[in-house]
Design goal:
About 70% of the residues lie in helices and about 0% in strands. With about 70 residues, the chain is mainly alpha-helical.
Length: about 70
């Protein structure tokens, strides 16, 4: 929700910079978009967080070891 609000604020600022012909408003909009991009959280749960016994790194290590033995 926060990402959508920040991106919409950035779009409005960039649009206003064209309407009022004030370039600094567009710069503010781009800064807001930049902040929105880097403050967005990825809420996808990883295998490690699901409580599985094997971590993702452990699975990769096993597969790599299996490939080298062939």
């Amino acid at each position: 929700m926060k990402l959508l609000l920040l991106i919409s604020c950035a779009v409005v600022c960039v649009a206003l910079s064209f309407a009022w012909r004030e370039p600094w408003i567009g710069g503010v909009g781009l800064l807001v978009a930049f902040v929105a991009m880097f403050t967005d959280r990825d809420d996808v749960r990883l295998d490690d967080e699901r409580g599985s016994y094997e971590t993702t790194k452990a699975v990769r290590d096993m597969r790599r070891r299996d490939r080298h033995q062939r």
